[in-house]
Design brief:
The chain is an alpha+beta fold and about 550 residues long. The protein has one domain. The chain has 17 helices and 21 strands. A seven-stranded antiparallel beta sheet has the order 1-20-19-15-14-11-10. Strand 6 and strand 7 form a beta hairpin.
Length: about 550
């Protein structure tokens, strides 16, 4: 029996897993009051944006996979923000800027799409699903925690401390931003784990959104307040940028995997990279590969490298470039790349991968069988570091990932969506959800998704055991000039030696490090309909069922 730190949560009706226990509780409260999976997701999303503010919030973006049990349809929402009308390469280069800053007002060059995504999903749920909840009901718990306070997690204390490095003004030193210091520091120092933190400005903002609807963020006096302060700091977004924002219903993309079909979101997300990995692995025989062996890690890492080569060549806003998704996810292409791995043909080295991507993923299944796989982010921890005065909104820095090289596929242009790491996932079997899964972690998202799928589907591990099993991350850390294969310390010495002999540059990290992301999963048994939920001990979450 595989050792587990936590038990797998089991339930017959609804199941929730999020990376923060208060968000899980918020979602479960809605389900038990008769709300559907979408309504529970909005409650969780708004709550986690308050109680996990370093990872996400209403100043960021989100993406949805929604399964409608009545119609047996899988729908998707892309509510990532576009760049501003004045966000041009010339704007930055004329100021002597060679790369978009990671922090500050010039990093906040895309509209925050999160609240619009909540609104679109809510209206769909009202039309298409059994519902008894009002919009304001779904934000009530987030308003409570913002106004009355919540206990700060060790994660928030740690990441606040990390971001006060006065010698690192490119990525850290967030105390230089006045509103950040006022909101997130107490007497100039981070809140300690267990301290009660209140966000009164954010409570007022959420209350206004609860009373006026999602559009209030994009076309109201709140919009004017955000833009006035951002422009005073030198930012580029305009009121018209906010008014023009729209989330989009998009067609999910998919590949077969064993007896299942794996679904994800299309570009501008890296969902096709996550699916490409599974498309390659679908041609590998895991009956002949021991889980946790050097061969297991080697095969998955090489599949990841091959998928990322395709991703980095094509991924951007599809309204600006053609992306050959059908060819990239074809059975023939997956088989070709799998054959290269079998022949020990190493994928070429990638450019240094982006080391960050602080995010929240969560999954929800309700009693009627509706399911949501959801992800929300402000990109780096605390996003741009900019909080427009009086709003409490931490603006994301997702637009800092744009390139200022016009020859690059992800080059900055006005009203363009950037390459997005966020991608929620779902496996369906015979047209019904079987596995709702995902993780935070930027470049690590496709990697951990592959770990979850292979461990649960191919090796029959419980969701909790699969989440807790030793993980890896191919990529780099801040300041590093090259990628390495980071592995948790529980991976045995013999496996490490064999991986090094296979040519992998290893970096051994602590067990259960949150650098590996906060994963979660819900598995639905096709015969009994029992839901099995798991949450990651690397985070602060909980899987709850009823």
């Amino acid at each position: 029996m595989t050792f587990q730190y936590r038990a797998t949560t089991m339930a017959t009706k609804g199941m929730v897993t999020t990376p923060h226990y208060l968000a899980s509780q918020a979602a479960m409260t809605i389900l038990q009051k008769g709300g559907n999976a979408i309504e529970a997701a909005i409650a969780a999303a708004s709550t986690i944006g308050v109680v996990y503010p370093h990872m996400n919030g209403i100043g960021g973006d989100n993406f949805w996979l929604i399964y409608n049990a009545k119609t047996s349809e899988l729908k998707a929402i892309n509510s990532s923000g576009r760049s501003g009308e004045n966000a041009t390469i010339d704007f930055y280069t004329s100021q002597g800027i060679a790369k978009i800053p990671s922090r500050g007002p010039l990093a906040a060059n895309t509209v925050p799409g999160a609240v619009a995504g909540w609104g679109q999903a809510f209206e769909y749920g009202k039309r298409e699903m059994t519902s008894s909840m009002e919009w304001a009901d779904l934000l009530a718990q987030s308003i409570h925690y913002a106004s009355e306070g919540f206990p700060v997690t060790p994660s928030q204390e740690y990441w606040t401390s990390v971001n006060l490095d006065a010698n690192d003004t490119e990525f850290r030193a967030l105390q230089r931003f006045e509103e950040f210091s006022r909101v997130f520091l107490k007497d100039g120092a981070p809140y300690k784990a267990g301290d009660i933190m209140k966000q009164t400005d954010l409570a007022k903002t959420l209350t206004a959104i609860a009373e006026n609807g999602a559009d209030y963020l994009y076309n109201s006096e709140l919009t004017e307040k955000i833009i006035a302060d951002l422009q005073a700091l030198g930012g580029v977004l305009t009121i018209e940028d906010f008014k023009a924002h729209r989330g989009d219903w998009v067609e999910p993309i998919s590949v077969p995997y064993r007896d299942y079909v794996a679904y994800n979101l299309p570009p501008n997300t890296q969902g096709f990279a996550s699916l490409s990995i599974l498309n390659i692995l679908n041609h590998m025989d895991f009956n002949a590969i021991e889980e946790g062996s050097a061969e297991y890690y080697h095969v998955l890492v090489e599949a990841i490298k091959h998928a990322f080569i395709d991703r980095d060549a094509f991924l951007t806003d599809p309204e600006f470039h053609d992306i050959p998704i059908d060819a990239l996810l074809s059975k023939e292409h997956g088989a070709l790349l799998a054959e290269k791995i079998k022949e020990n043909f190493f994928a070429k080295e990638l450019q240094p991968l982006d080391p960050k991507g602080d995010t929240v993923w969560f999954g929800i299944v309700d009693a009627e069988g509706n399911a949501v796989s959801f992800i929300q982010s402000i990109y780096h921890e605390f996003g741009s570091g900019i909080i427009p005065k009086g709003t409490g909104i931490v603006l994301q820095n997702r637009g800092s990932f744009f390139s200022l090289d016009e020859t690059q596929v992800n080059a900055l242009a006005p009203r363009k969506r950037t390459f997005h790491t966020l991608n929620p996932a779902m496996l369906l079997k015979d047209g019904k959800p079987a596995l709702v899964y995902g993780t935070m972690g930027g470049e690590g998202q496709p990697q951990t998704q592959a770990a979850l799928v292979t461990r649960i589907i191919d090796y029959g591990m419980s969701v909790q055991a699969a989440i807790e099993a030793p993980r890896w991350l191919y990529g780099r850390t801040w300041g590093a000039s090259s990628n390495s294969l980071k592995i948790e310390n529980r991976i045995s010495k013999d496996v490490r030696v064999n991986l090094q002999n296979d040519g992998h540059e290893l970096e051994v990290l602590a067990d259960l490090t949150d650098i590996m992301g906060h994963a979660g999963a819900i598995f639905i048994h096709e015969e009994t309909n029992v839901k099995y939920g798991g949450a990651d001990p690397r985070g602060d979450g909980a899987a709850l069922g009823y």
